[in-house]
Amino acid sequence: MFAHRLEVLALLQRLRREQSGNVAMLFGLLVIPLAVSIGLAVDFGRVYNVRSQTQSALDAAALAAGRVAQVNKTDIVNKASSAATAYFNQAKPKDVVIATLQFSPNAGNTAFTVTATSWVRTPFLAVLNSLFPQDSTDGAPANCLGNGHRCIRLISTATAALCPSEACLGQNSGGSNVEISLMMDVTGSMCDPCTKIAAAKTAAKDLIDIVVSDDQSQYYSRVALAPFAEAVNVGTTLAPLVRGTVTENNSSNPQTFTSSGTLSDTSNQPTKRWIKYTKSGGSGTNTWQISSKCVTERIGTDAYTDAAPADTTSYVGKGYFGTNTDTSCPVGNHSDAAVNRIMPLTKDKTALKEHVDKLTTAGSTAGHLGTAWAWYLLSPNWNSVLQQAFPTSSAAGSYSDLTTTNAKGFPKLRKIAVLMTDGEYNINYCKGVEAKNSNQSPDINCNSENGKALAQAESLCTKIKDTKIEVFTVGFQVNSASKTFLTNCATDASHYYDATSEVALQAAFRDIALKIATLRLTN
After folding, report:
1. Do residues 45 and 194 share a domain?
2. pTM of the prediction?
C-alpha cells in the first residue's frame, strides 16, 4: 500500500511540472479523484491496522479470562471479566474514537467470548458525504454524529474455550478425550511436616477441578487416583482378583520360606494365607498373614507390562505385613475402607475430591508400586478386572486412539500419568515381604526377585512411555538422585517439576493441569 502511494505521488509531481494546456487541463480533471484515492487509501489503511490490533488484543483478553476461570472457584465471572478488560485496555489500538468491550461466558464457564466495538475516524471518506449523504450509524459516539462517512464501526470477537469442551467444536478447532492417572505419595515423610500432605491434597483437587470438564457431551475427561506408600491399597474386593486367592491355613501350619528352604527360588511363591520366613538377619523367623488390601510388585515375564492379571504368571505380588490382615499394612490400616485406596477412572469430580481429602500418611516409599498402578489404571487391559471391583468406574480407552486423529485433526485420546513423590524409593519385596536389599527395615532374608525399587521404577517408566502415555513427574523436596530419576522418567525435561516448597507444589500441579486442559482460541 505504501509503494502504491509513492507511485501516485510521483505521477502527480510529473503532471504538475508539465506546462502544456492539455496536460494542465488533464491534471485539473485528475487531481480531485487522485486526491480522493489517496485519502481513501489512508482511511482504509487506518481501519485495517485498527482491526488487526483489536483482534490481537481480543485474543489476549479471551485467554486471560479463561486462565483466571481455570484457577478460581468463587466469583469466577467477575474475576474473568476483570482480567479480560485489563488485558484489552492495555493492548487495544489507540488510533480510535472509542473502543468498548463486551464479555460473555457460556453457561458452564468453560468458554469466554469477548466482543469489541471500535469507531475509527475516516476524515477523507467524510468528504464524500456531500455527494452521497448518509446518516450516522446508530450508537455512534458524539465525534462521529452528523455524517455517516465520518467514522467506520468495527465489531470483532474472540472466544477462548477450555478443551475438552463443546465450545471447541468450531470450524477450525477440536479437542481430545483425556484420561489421567494421579500417583500420590502418602508416605510418612509427607507428614514431616504434615502441611506437605495438605498442600498435595490442595494441588490434586485444583488439578481435578481444571481438567475434568462439567460438560462431557463431546469430549470426556476422567481422572484416576493411585496413592502409595510401602504398598498399594487396592481394597478387599480387588485384591484377590489381582493377586490371586490363597489357600486357607493357620499360623500353626504356615507355608515355610526359610534359609534351609527355597528363599532364592523365584518360581516358588506364597500361595497360602499364612507364611513363615527367615528374618533378614538370618536369625529367627516370623509368621505373618496376607494383607486383605495391600499388594506388592509383580515378578516374572510380566513384571514390566500391563498385561491383565489373569493367572499365576501375571498376578501382582501378594503382601505380608504382620499377623493381622486389616491393620498390619500401614497404607491400609484404617477403619474407613476408602482411605488411601486406589480409585479407577471417573468423571465424578465430587467423588474424586472426597477421595483426595481422605488421604492419610503412613509407611515408607515403594514408588515403583505407585508407578505401576498409575499405569494399570490407564490400561485398557485392566478394564475387566477393575470394573468387577468398581462397577461404576469408567473404562480406559484403547491405546490405538492415542495415535488416531478425530475429524478435527486432534488425537482421539490422550493418556497422561502424573507421578508425584517426596522421597527416594526404598522398599522392595521378596515373597511379598520387605526384602533384604530394601533400603529401610528389611524383613525377609532374600533379595527382591526384580531388584531394587528404583531400578524397577526406571524399567516401568520406559515401558509406560513406550505405550505413548504422556508422563509428568513432580519431585517434592527431593534429593539430586531422585531429581535425575524423575527427569528421566518424564516424557521430556519440560515434563519434570522440581517443587521445593508447598506453594511450588501447587503451582506445578496447576501448570500441568493447564497444559492438559488446553485453553484454545476457537474463533
Report:
1. no
2. 0.73
